[in-house]
Amino acid sequence: MAKNFDVPESTFANVPKKELFIFERPLPGPLEEEQKQSQEGTGPVPNSFAFCPSQMQPTKVSKGGEVKIVDRNNFPAINIAAAIVTLKSGGLRELHWHPNEDEWQYYVRGKGRMTVFAAQRTCQDNGL
Fold this sequence. Notes:
Elements: H1 2-5, H2 31-41, E1 60-62, E2 65-70, E3 82-87
Antiparallel strand pairs: 1-2, 2-3
């Protein structure tokens, strides 16, 4: 520790030679027992925080490929939406837009092109 903190060894002369814990507790019991106690206390967690898109059926299939939409409808623990798009070679994703939200693109394999139309809104456009 002295070398790590760049101080003399005497700085740690009174530190115990073995590990100490602030709140010492016994080791946990069997998992089944812990799960039973959890159920009796707060009950089950209302929403699962695990989601496996690889196991879901495509939301939409077209001649260009398929898309799986993950949002609150099928994964209540999130407040965003994600589209996992698989395109066939030469395939095209449908034209769409998000007037109030950003879009992130991640390409896992292959090559693709994304075109962005960025319209500017002004107060005059809204009649303000």
